């Protein structure tokens, strides 16, 4: 009997490039011996319901879309007892998850990996029970990804996110928060915070040099403290433009479980989409929860070496600067 593949397509993701290429992709899947079922998404949050009901009947799930589509697919798969391996054809604007996992960005190459790639057991984050594949974030820039106009994203790519974020710096208010990271408490007034499972955020390779792995069973926590003066803001902007994070204002750590307390319900973003407003939430990692198909060489590597949870670092973005990254203690 033929192997069965469910191909989920968000036709509206990114510039809609998949529309012109879907037939070639389906043709490739058929040539590789799959009986293909195609579903084009019709509305938000449709994929999890569909997968809960039907994923068990397939040998492979492939989704095409941006980070939001992938997030919905992962949420659906987590609800299934038997989770088929997941192929991902990135078709969004930035595609952080794909960058982190070494999944090619062109549709034909990604489609080939979706059928011929090797499975990589990827950690998944849980935010109050809802899955995220690469980021849960609060504060200053968290609405950037879903409020930056699509045209600007298409035109500028990742630079759109950082520019939109910098534009807002002068007007933003810090939030009083307390985060308990595997029992260690971090309290203060934070402009921004993110809990990630990714080497790439907003298109910037934040993790490569601090040894982030997507299957080390750990989430990375990045917190940006309140900036008191114009000079401090300028310092942070300059560091960002140099491709760095300033260790005096940015704390980085790792944890399996992060419990967050805030003064009032605050909005969060999950994988670039609005994630709801919460006053208290538990964020934890589900180690090796989803088998994602990726480059066999990367999968064989078993993920990059991971820094221990005790190291607190200001990671260096992959940028122009040649300086090393900084290490500081809490
Ligand atoms: N037919 C549809 N109509 C409206 N929204 C849809 C439809 N199909 C899917 N969606 C929703 O569109 C949202 C955005 O999709 P996605 O994130 O995949 O693309 P994108 O925003 O272009 O990419 P990125 O977030 O990487 O920039 C998803 O949350 C999904 O639920």
TrEMBL record:
Residues 1-131 form the DAGKc domain. Coiled coil: none annotated. Its cofactor is Mg(2+). Keywords: ATP-binding, Kinase, Lipid biosynthesis, Lipid metabolism, Magnesium, Metal-binding, Nucleotide-binding, Phospholipid biosynthesis, Phospholipid metabolism, Transferase. PROSITE patterns: DAGK. GO terms for molecular function: ATP binding; ATP-dependent diacylglycerol kinase activity; metal ion binding. InterPro entries: ATP-NAD_kinase_N (IPR017438), Diacylglycerol/lipid_kinase (IPR005218), Diacylglycerol_kinase_cat_dom (IPR001206), Lipid_Phosphate_FormReg (IPR050187), NAD/diacylglycerol_kinase_sf (IPR016064), YegS/DAGK_C (IPR045540). The keyword Lipid metabolism applies. It comes from the Bacteria. GO terms for biological process: phospholipid biosynthetic process. GO terms for cellular component: plasma membrane. Gene3D superfamilies: 2.60.200.40, Probable inorganic polyphosphate/atp-NAD kinase, domain 1 (3.40.50.10330). Belongs to the diacylglycerol/lipid kinase family. This is Diacylglycerol kinase family lipid kinase.
């Amino acid at each position: 009997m033929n192997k069965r593949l469910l191909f989920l397509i968000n036709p509206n993701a990114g510039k809609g490039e998949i529309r012109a290429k879907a037939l070639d992709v389906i043709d490739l899947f058929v040539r590789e011996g799959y009986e293909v079922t195609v579903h084009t998404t019709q509305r938000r949050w449709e994929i999890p319901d569909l997968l809960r009901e039907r994923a068990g009947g397939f040998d492979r799930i492939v989704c095409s879309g941006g980070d939001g589509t992938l997030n919905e697919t992962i949420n659906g798969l987590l609800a299934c007892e038997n989770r088929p391996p997941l192929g991902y054809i990135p078709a969004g604007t930035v595609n952080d998850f794909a960058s982190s996992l070494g999944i090619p960005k062109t549709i034909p190459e990604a489609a080939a990996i979706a059928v011929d790639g090797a499975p990589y057991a990827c950690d998944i984050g849980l935010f109050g029970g809802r899955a995220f594949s690469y980021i849960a974030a609060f504060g200053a820039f968290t609405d950037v990804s879903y409020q930056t106009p699509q045209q600007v994203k298409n035109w500028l790519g990742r630079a759109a996110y950082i520019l939109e974020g910098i534009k807002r710096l002068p007007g933003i208010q810090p939030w009083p928060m307390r985060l308990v990271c595997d029992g260690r408490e971090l309290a203060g007034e934070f402009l921004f915070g993110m809990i990630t499972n990714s080497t790439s955020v907003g298109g910037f390779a934040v993790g490569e040099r601090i040894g982030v792995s997507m299957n080390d069973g750990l989430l990375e926590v990045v917190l940006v403290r309140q900036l008191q003066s114009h000079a401090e803001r300028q310092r942070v902007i300059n560091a960002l433009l140099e491709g760095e994070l300033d260790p005096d204002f940015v704390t980085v750590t790792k944890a399996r479980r992060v419990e967050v307390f805030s003064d009032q319900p605050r909005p969060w973003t999950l994988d670039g989409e609005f994630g709801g407003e919460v006053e208290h939430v538990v964020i934890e990692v589900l180690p090796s929860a989803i088998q994602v198909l990726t480059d066999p060489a990367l999968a064989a590597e078993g993920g990059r070496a991971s820094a221990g949870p005790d190291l607190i670092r200001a990671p260096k973005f992959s940028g122009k600067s040649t300086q090393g990254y900084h290490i500081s203690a809490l």
